[in-house]
Amino acid sequence: MVISNADIEATTRYIADQTKEPEGRQPDWMKTDRGDFQAVWLIVETDGRIRGQLRFRVHPHALEFPSISLIFRGNNVMRIDLVPPDECEPNPIQAARLGLPATVCGPHVHRWEDNRSLVKSSGVWELPVRAPVTSPIRSIEQMFLWFCGEVGIQLRPEHRRFVEPPKDLLSGIE
Questions:
Q1: pLDDT (tens digit, 9 = 90+) per residue, 10-21?
Q2: Which residues, including other chains, have CB under 8 Å from residue 171's CB and lie 6 or more apart?
Q3: Do the Cβ atoms of 28 and 127 come closer than 8 Å?
Q4: Which of 38, 47, 108, 119 has the most CB atoms in a 10 Å sphere around its CB?
Q5: How many structural domains are present in the chain?
């Protein structure tokens, strides 16, 4: 698959745009076919266009380890994963050129700027390069605030609180 320069540049501009914000109130959590929970929050731009969304995921038995992705035009363009500190993943060789470690343990982020050249050269819209998150993030709410700052999403006071799936949704989960 060929990913055009226009697609790469549009994604870079979208992330750099500091005027986008979540649309409406916090979305409801829904159980997926895979057994985890997901919430999708549309992102509106100042001109009213909606080309992106935040996608939140959490496993019912690991609520303390959520994931948030920024999706633009149907592609994952940035993601943060809160994982246990002893969970380690290897980085591709290209990460060394960016000054990133060969192995990343604990919370990490898959930044667009770290993965942009790989997406373009491979023709595959994946984000294999990860960087450690050094901020002390301990909850989905802290993660949400940090992530929005990283991707230029402006938050009004009513957007600043993001909560995990409600306990009644989780009832009956084995």
A1: 999 999 999 999
A2: none
A3: no
A4: 108
A5: 1
